[in-house]
Amino acid sequence: MDESAGATLVNALASTRRGNDTIFGWYARYLQALEDGHDAINGTAGLLLEDDGSLAINDVVDQMLRKAPPVEFASYAPLKGLPDFLDLSISLALGDHRSELEELGFHFVSTATPGGSGALFLAANNLCERGDAILLRERHWGPYAGFLVGCGLEMATWPLLPDEGNELPFFADAAFEQTVEELAQKQNTVMVWLNDPAHNPTGLTMTPKGRRAALDIMMASASKHPDVGHTLLLDTAYSLYANEPHGWGQTIKDTMDDGTPWPENFLITYALSLSKSHTAYGLRTGALIGIHPDQSVIERLRDIFGTTGRQTWSAAPRVLQHAASQLHSDEETAQAWSEERDRLQGLLTDRRDAFVKACKQYDVPINPTHDGFFAWLEHENPESITEACAQHHVYLVPLRGGIRIGLCAMPLHGIDRVAQTLANVLN
Length: 427
What we know:
Elements: H1 22-35, E1 41-42, H2 59-67, H3 70-74, H4 83-94, H5 97-103, E2 107-113, H6 115-126, E3 133-137, H7 144-150, E4 154-158, H8 173-186, E5 189-195, H9 208-224, E6 229-235, H10 247-257, E7 266-273, E8 286-292, H11 295-312, H12 319-329, H13 331-362, E9 374-378, H14 382-390, E10 394-395, E11 397-399, E12 402-406, H15 415-426
Parallel strand pairs: 1-10, 3-4, 3-5, 5-6, 6-7
Antiparallel strand pairs: 2-8, 7-8, 9-12, 11-12
Helix pairs in contact: 2-12, 4-12, 5-10, 6-11, 8-9, 9-10, 13-15
């Protein structure tokens, strides 16, 4: 007999859900250190903070929200999302490449979701057969695992980085191709979740050649296995803080310009989040966007995604859908938002540059890191390192295989101290 509390009240899956989120647990430790009067440095939660420790907020977004009429706060949004927001979401995902892809005959579907997490759920719930494995990088955002388990899915991985000397420095193409083929031979679906650009937890961004190699591998596999559905999901939560925010749109266009045929059983989706790009984490607004040349496929997905949303969260929150649509439809406010986004991106760039320089100075072997909120240190026993850093009141996050370093939260003046602390505890 199971003697755990409430054993008869919960199902088998629920009984596996226990404990606190690692990231927020370490964030709580940082806050406690501050409360106790320590000079603590925060490298934990994925929130962009100013150098004084306050939450960085794009004032243009804040102003648009405050101008929204009461009905935009209080009313439901349409089940699939406000039409203007759905149109905007496609442009945010593809940038200037949207019109180019439309001219090439592509069609788009967008469904509003509660944040990027809702977009991931829609994809996991609808685009894979139960029991299939979704392919992830070996290093990935931890909650991915929970989405998969909750949707009855398994996980397969390929290495974060290739062997030294590989032609593609930031994409393990041979391992990726091999794993895609293995999945295609034994599953009805092959789905890849690729957090690029500005990967969480490493800050890695693929090169144009790496993007093209990944797309070629997926399309070749779809052509080889026409009865197996292939989906490439691009998790773009941090993309608008990257140097090439719309690089994937360029890669898709280049592939089509080269005459590569698009397999009917291949779909690209974007998991879009406004949490970071519009500094509105708590308003839980995002979208799942699909790209395919067949309009009938797009209409089918529109119905499926909308119905799933209705049966899961009813409708996504309305007010940021409205405010963002108003903001980006006006040239003046859109430019002001862009300028403030650039300032916030500058904070991240300055911190990353300083951190990479300091790690080189102190011989801290961090991974390659390019864009976004984080940097990464591979380590077999990350908890021992973060516990040692915490003794110096530097708070980082231990994850499977290494340590996530939240540059987004660190003041520029504390960067050297973080690198020096890591050097000390590693030796």
